Amino acid sequence: MKTKMNEQYHCSGSSNEYNVEQETLNYRVENRFINSNKDRNLIKTFALWKSLLIIMFLCVPNSVNGTYVQRNMNPSGLVDFACKNRKAIKNQIKIRESDIFLRIIHTNDIHSRLDPFEKNEQGESCKLSDVADRSTCFGGLARIKYVIDELKNEVDGIGNNFKSLVLDAGDQIQGGYYYSFYKGKATGDIIKSMGFEAMTLGNHEFDQGPTSLTKYLKDIGLPVISADIIVNKTAETELNEIVDSYKIFEEMNLGVIGLTTNNTAWTSSSGPNIEFLDYVDTVNKYVKILNDKGIQRIILLTHIGYEFDKKLASMINPGVSVIVGGHSHSFLYSGDDQKVIGGNKIQGSYPTIIDNNSWTTCIVQAKCWGEYVGHLDIVLDSTGKVVNKYTSGSPIRITSETKENKLIKKKVDIYQNHLYNYINEKLGDSILNIPLVDDMVRLPDTNGTTNIEIKESPMGNMVTRALMVAAKNSNNNQIIDFSLISSGSIKIGLKKGPIIRKNIMEATPFNDAISYATINGTVLVDALNGVLSGYRGNNTVREFVFMDGVRFNWTESIKEYIDESGNSKLKTTRVVDRVYIRKRSTISNGIKGISNYDAYKIGSKVDIREWEIVGPGKNYTFATSDYISNGGENIFLKTEIINLERQYNKKNVEIRDLVDPPTNPRVNTYQIVESYIKSESPIYPISEGRSQPGPLFKN
């Protein structure tokens, strides 16, 4: 699965992408954080007292620290406030004039889920997927906006030291039909109306590169903070001007520092002009800067993951009161209400409490896709310390019965209506299933684990063949030797029967722009060895590759090694044996002459006379995605690309252009695959033995 988007596709208890052992650590690894689950045992103790106090008071404790308000989810899924008016809240919260009461309202990892989504692995739009039972649908930005406004209105206006703050912890974009079609245009158009007062950058904000990110951030106009990235001022001038390290809220004497995961450098398309810094050093630096400015109350807004948030809180110098996180899609909750839990795995308390040298830091996160809106009520004294007895909060689940903000709903409907008819248009037919791997159209749900299939893919074969045909059709004067995509670029195969555009969007959801890149033969062999081993030097490679025009096999051996605990383990080692490339004479004569049906009939009986061993010193040009040509997954290192030519198509005018007119649009994956299906329909599966441990050619 394509790492740059794994988390957007899996919003179970844990992120499919996020793995502490695999993340690149730029900071010191220690394990000094205190088990935050210690507060869970106190909940039952307070439960009886809570029941009694409800009779006596308007507002009663509902957390381990004993706060002022009872907040539940009623049967309709709406927010139910026991304290209906501001005066009641103020009467229950007795704080000094120098303290502030702060309600932090937060989201993270929305991943372009504009409207309610279906609760499954893909999490696609219920409307666009024609889901009949809308009670199984959650989230939606119109509902989220309604809840945000309700939470703000409950606090704002009470007094000078009663405040609210609305934050987003990154990965607003990438995922689902809306992003596949509109890219960031639709998401940004709505996000800018949600009331966020600051956001940090997630790794997926970089997926279309710094130029697209700059346009997105200019369009939404939100304060953007990320202290651990250094943007080259000369190469990315506008982006450098947009992204700050922190934002100060003067009226609260409060600063918010942003952090972005350092694995963005290899899981996304940040490019050569973005540098990522050490987390701990960065936080300590900017806490001091804020303190020197007289700012004592400090919040971190991070997109580094829950486990790293906990470690970070235990390792930095005292001074950070709250960490509002994202990236790991973690569901944090301290209650037992099944309507709130909804079958999700609880990964920690809300808030998670970290004690570091007598300093308390509260950590919160709100899962992903907008299934929850988090809200943390906290009192901070003049030094930024948490006044523990007033701390409470909970994720609020956004259900099918949550009210909607009418303005946001109207905006979403415009994009939804444009998209609905377009994605349901028929493109062709498939005579048989086109499996992803083996005979499976869809891999089984691995519940958040990464499962790399190192084997040929009939669906991958079809997509890469489409790239070769498109290159021949559009550029007869240039030889494209082969095509290549990462295994994560394809999510599912196709079922036999009618093929509609929606099926292609589900199967190849990233819709990457296409480039032609040139490398030499040695680099190709090195890249394939990296794909098989999982490493290129010190860089992790977490994807297999699908190709047309290249055939390669490998040898396998089992070796013993000693793990970190000193235990003996066995590991399968794969090393490239032979790499063949289709002769240019064959390509020149017309790869299009080999129809999809011809390839299906030929199967693995490929004529070796049409192929030759890759020449180490010879240069080869191939069609691939921008993501791969920019160094995505470390399959190719950026320094290995000899020449790069991006493909444009000025005739590419689609329904999206009614909303976002193009100036010089790129050729993308959808166009190429759609064109291939239309011209070759009915489609058959192609299984040629392009990559395998055994012989590449049969007599």
From TrEMBL:
The chain crosses the membrane at residues 46-64. Residues 451-635 form the 5'-Nucleotidase C-terminal domain. GO terms for biological process: nucleotide catabolic process. Gene3D superfamilies: 3.60.21.10, 5'-Nucleotidase, C-terminal domain (3.90.780.10). Belongs to the 5'-nucleotidase family. Keywords: Hydrolase, Membrane, Nucleotide-binding, Signal, Transmembrane, Transmembrane helix. This is 5'-Nucleotidase C-terminal domain-containing protein. It comes from the Eukaryota. It comes from Furculomyces boomerangus. SUPFAM superfamilies: 5'-nucleotidase (syn. UDP-sugar hydrolase), C-terminal domain, Metallo-dependent phosphatases. GO terms for molecular function: hydrolase activity, acting on ester bonds; metal ion binding; nucleotide binding. Residues 102-330 form the Calcineurin-like phosphoesterase domain.
